[in-house]
Amino acid sequence: MKTVGIIGGMGPEATLDLFYKIIKNTPAKKDQEHIHLIIDNYPQIPDRTQFILGKGENPLPYLLRSANLLENAGVDAICMPCNTAHFFVDDIRKKINVPFISIVESVLKDIKKNQRDAKRIGLLATEGTIAGKVYHRVFEKEGYTIIVPKVSVQKKLMDVIYSVKAGRAKEKVNLLQECIDNLSNEVDILIAACTEIPILIPYIKSSIPIIDATLSLAKSVVEFALSD
């Protein structure tokens, strides 16, 4: 069994959600059959969206510090439960000597396997993920069309995201529902492409499928760790 390192803390609850979903998707019958994970919960990594929008400190040195820490601890691969931080994925891959398991590539694999007819994809993500073309760069090469919320809806979505980070998740369920309802008529499926959003998915009703990016990543981690 391989060991996987997690660059965590972006935010802590999203990291916990990934850990839980890895556990639930591992076919283990006893403790010893679960995956060896090393989690660096590092909430001091600067805000990714603020940097991409030109308003904050560059998080890349912090991401590389965490990646190097995990690699020195002996992991066989690295991942991170933060979609916006995947803006830096190429820079991270250049600086590490183990595979990097991408949340974006994991979602793409899931959609190709389970939602073959989907072409117009709604993105529930941070302003940084959208401005940085984190999903656009991967999905548009594969012939998908990415649809993003209107500016007014995106502002509400950011309110939801930062409320979850602040530990006030359930206060914003109705607001997230409003955002989803606004986008659903324009797309075939939705991606919960910020790792705070899947925490609220159990309380949401949707007329179309919602892809939980954190779950997609968890399944990729399990597949890698248990592979020969």
Protein architecture, described:
The protein is α/β, with parallel strands linked by helices and 228 residues long. It is 43% helix and 13% strand. The protein has two domains: 3-102 and 216-225, 3-Layer(aba) Sandwich (Rossmann fold); 104-212, Rossmann fold.
CATH class of the largest domain: Alpha Beta
Helical content band:
40-55%
H and E order: EHEHHEHHEHHEHHEEH
User: For the residues shown, what is the average pLDDT?
Assistant: 97
| Net shape | globular
For the record, the count of structural domains works out to 2
CATH topology category name of the largest domain: Rossmann fold
Our count of helices gives 10
Read across the widest sheet, the strand sequence of neighbours is: 5-4-6-7
CATH 2nd-level architecture of the largest domain: 3-Layer(aba) Sandwich
Question: What structural category arises from helix and sheet content?
Answer: alpha/beta
